[in-house]
Design a protein that fits this description.
This protein is of the alpha/beta class. It is about 20% helix and about 15% strand. It is built from four helices and six strands; from the N terminus they run H-H-E-H-E-E-E-E-H-E. The chain has helices at about 5-10, 40-50, 85-90, 130-140; strands spanning about 70-75, 100, 110, 125, 130, 145. A three-stranded parallel beta sheet has the order 1-3-5. The chain has a three-stranded parallel beta sheet with strand order 2-4-6, with helices on one face.
Length: about 150
């Protein structure tokens, strides 16, 4: 905003600068910040911020969040993590290297055993495997690799 249009310019020549003669414009008459929430500003705190003061519940020391976070994927959806072209290319050379599917890279931690796998060896990297998933992967000649 240009200086010309500021309130100060308009108030030049008016003694109290819009703050009144009697009350005076002092620095922090009610205290700084949230001062007086229990005392002289109590009405405001009770009215607009109920429950601001006090405690609730029990303390939980060293709370670790996300300890139970474990997104899962089933075997029938496993091949959707890589392109169809990849699967076809690797199926053409059965004695060659097996494709590696990194489940953790795709945002899943655990592999579950629902569905069927195509009869093609595959190396699956994950943090957890269910018993059935491991059996089915090994059945088609694949391998389960645990990652941290």
């Amino acid at each position: 905003m240009p200086t010309k249009k500021t309130k100060t310019r308009k108030l030049r020549g008016h003694v109290s600068h819009g703050h009144g003669r009697i009350g005076k414009h002092r620095k922090h008459p009610g205290g700084r910040g949230n001062a007086g929430g229990m005392h002289h500003h109590r009405i405001n705190f009770d009215k607009y911020h109920p429950g601001y003061f006090g405690k609730l519940g029990m303390r939980h020391y060293h709370l670790k969040r996300n300890t139970k976070f474990c997104p899962t994927i089933n075997l029938d959806k496993l091949w959707t993590l890589v392109s169809e072209q990849t699967r076809v290319n690797y199926s053409k050379k059965p004695d060659g290297p097996a494709p590696i599917i990194d489940v953790v890279h795709a945002g899943y931690f655990k592999v579950l055993g629902k569905g069927k796998l195509p009869n093609q060896p595959v190396i699956v990297k994950a943090k957890f495997f269910s018993r059935k998933a491991e059996e089915k992967i090994k059945e088609v000649g694949g391998a389960c690799v645990l990652t941290a």
